[in-house]
From TrEMBL:
Membrane topology: Single-pass type II membrane protein
InterPro entries in alphabetical order: GalNAc-T, Glyco_trans_2-like, Nucleotide-diphossugar_trans, Ricin_B-like_lectins, Ricin_B_lectin
Organism domain of life: Eukaryota
Protein name: Polypeptide N-acetylgalactosaminyltransferase
GO CC field: Golgi membrane
The entry's keywords: Disulfide bond, Glycoprotein, Glycosyltransferase, Golgi apparatus, Lectin, Manganese, Membrane, Signal-anchor, Transferase, Transmembrane, Transmembrane helix
Gene Ontology molecular function: any one: polypeptide N-acetylgalactosaminyltransferase activity
Enzyme Commission identifier(s): 2.4.1.-
SMART domains named in the record: RICIN
Pfam families per UniProt: Glycos_transf_2 (PF00535), Ricin_B_lectin (PF00652)
Limits of the Ricin B lectin domain: 405-514
Length: 522
């Protein structure tokens, strides 16, 4: 991208609205700083509010409420970003924010941050899509407040649609040439939209995301990622999204800190796309319920059907990441699996087997996907094999798998399990949980996706590094799993801990990969 010296453009459209003016003096959370509170010294009433805030949102609403809606953030961009020359004429964007029972302060801080950091000439409108919330503050109070803001309107679903169909409501209503989606707990930073619009102006099939920074769910501190700390989006074979490092080969293609970074997938919530491009690609599968899979669907589709997906390093938006979802799932968590199966059926070709193995081939009723398959055919899209070879070759390790399945210890009858914090434990083998599925590769790795079982002074799971000294294992007929470089065997001690031990003939050192046979068609 061309970089030249140029004076900064006026980047705000809000100087005349008193609600949007910057607050002077000191206040909690200024410049993205943390807000620490002492719960012990709170009144009983405050404590009640504090715990309720966590319960309703799974983030610290109490702290969010203390921070002004107009808090000023540091300019987190790389210095080079200030010198990028943008086209004078760029397409205008609708900003679509879907929410279900969002807190007042996080929702409106999202809206304020858009208005304060987007020149009005690029902002067609802000559409708030209420996905059938029940919180009273999101009814009339929100309506009255929004009337005082420029260019913001609310549309409401008539029943709980889930975030995917809520986004489709926004897509239908939007007037902008470009659509920019945001979650309802974001904070946009200085000039966040222009880099994305510019990329789309250069290539109408470009889909772009900002760098998604982290607004701490406890203190609301704004943590930014830049340079090598920027991760790309990837996926795992249980069809979940993950962040991944930019490997050396990819890095070579990036010449300057302002260059777009190609990303195999997107996290899902924050991106810009031309409205007609989104339509042409068949938007989202409307059969996706509540949450999940739409992010991988759109990612695969963009790459496989003629588009590009990139992260714009000069565009930064913060998002409150949280550990679990606070809202109800009308049809239960099994929707998540059904979404995944619909995704795999349509887009993964023969690779869907990898996912189904991990589900123990229990697919259930996932509805009709023939329309989606037709769409893929009509768009003349590349195969998933093409996607892997050309867009995400790091995932091709799956072709070298000897066996995949839960790894059971003969003595205990329990299976090896990596807890979400990467520590190891044993668990019931019948638990159908992706973190239970290990793959032995032809090169002697024991993998769970991009992570490898490794041993030096302890046994841990690390991002696979290709370091054979610590990551190479041999599985023997006897069931022994030998760690090659230390010449010791995987063992389960009396406390139920997985350790390395001198190899002897004992059941605690015997392991087997449970085979997951594909059921025969009746
Ligand atoms: C991530 C994405 C999210 C979405 C999801 C997969 C980011 C930062 N977030 O999860 O946008 O792609 O992965 O589906 O990339 N909502 C509704 N109706 C519902 C449920 C949620 O409108 O039934 C809203 C919700 O208020 C929020 C947005 O959808 O604004 C995303 O939900 P989330 O914040 O729980 O998802 P997140 O960030 O964990
Ligand atoms: Mn979110």
């Amino acid at each position: 991208m061309k970089v030249l010296k140029q004076k900064r453009i006026d980047s705000t459209n809000v100087t005349k609205n008193p609600l949007l003016l910057e607050i002077q003096g000191d206040y909690p959370g200024k410049y993205g700083g943390p807000v620490n509170i002492n719960v012990a010294s709170m009144t009983e009433e405050q404590k009640k509010q504090y715990y309720l805030g966590w319960q309703n949102n799974r983030f610290n609403q109490f702290v969010s409420d203390l921070i002004p809606l107009n808090r000023k953030l540091d300019d987190v961009r790389e210095p080079e970003c200030r010198n990028v020359v943008y086209r004078e004429i760029l397409p205008r964007s609708s900003v679509i924010i879907c929410f279900h029972n969002e807190a007042w302060s996080t929702l409106l801080r999202t809206v304020h941050s858009v208005l304060r950091n987007t020149p009005s000439k690029y902002l067609e409108e802000i559409i708030l899509v209420d996905d059938f919330s029940s919180f009273p503050h999101l009814k009339e109070p929100l309506e009255n407040y929004v009337k005082k803001l420029p260019n913001v309107r609310i549309i409401r679903s008539q029943k709980r649609e889930g975030l995917i169909r809520a986004r489709l409501l926004g897509h239908r209503e939007a007037k902008g040439e470009v659509l920019t989606y945001l979650d309802s707990h974001c904070e946009c930073t200085e000039d966040w939209l222009r880099p994305m619009l510019q990329r789309i102006a250069e290539n109408p099939m470009a889909v772009v995301t900002p760098v998604i920074d982290r607004v701490d769910e406890t203190t609301f501190k704004y943590w930014t990622f830049s340079g090598p700390a920027i991760n790309i989006g990837v996926f795992q074979w249980d069809l979940t999204f993950n962040w991944g490092p930019v490997h050396r080969e990819r890095r070579k293609a990036i010449e300057s800190p302002v260059d777009p970074i190609k990303s195999p997938t997107m996290a899902g919530g924050l991106f810009s796309i031309r409205k007609d491009t989104f339509s042409k690609l068949g938007t989202y599968d409307p059969g996706f319920e509540t949450w999940g899979s739409e992010n991988l669907e759109i990612s695969f589709k963009i790459w496989m059907c003629g588009g590009t997906l990139e992260i714009m390093p000069c565009s930064h938006v913060g998002h409150v990441f949280r550990g679990s979802s606070p809202y109800s799932w009308p049809k239960g968590m099994s929707e998540l699996r059904t979404n995944g199966i619909r995704l795999a059926e349509v887009w993964l070709d023969e690779y869907k087997e990898e996912y189904y193995k991990r589900l123990g081939y229990v697919l259930g009723d996932y509805g009709d996907v023939s329309e989606r398959k037709k769409l893929k055919k009509d768009l003349n899209c590349h195969s998933f094999d093409w996607y892997l070879h050309n867009i995400y070759p790091e995932a091709l390790w799956v072709k070298n798998v000897v066996i995949v399945g839960p790894l059971m210890n003969k003595l205990s009858g329990t299976c090896f399990y990596i807890q979400p914090d990467d520590t190891l434990a044993m668990a019931s083998c019948s638990m159908r949980e992706p973190l239970l599925y290990y793959a032995l590769t032809k090169t002697g790795e024991i993998r769970i996706d991009m992570r490898c079982l490794a041993a030096y002074d302890k046994i841990i799971v690390i991002t696979c590094s290709g370091n054979r000294g610590i990551e190479e294992w041999t599985v023997h007929q006897t069931g022994h799993i030998l760690h090659l470089s230390s010449n010791r065997c995987l063992d389960l001690n009396q406390d139920g801990k997985v350790i390395l031990n001198k190899c002897i003939n004992t059941p605690s050192q015997m392991w087997s990969f449970l085979r997951l046979e594909k059921p025969q068609k009746k």
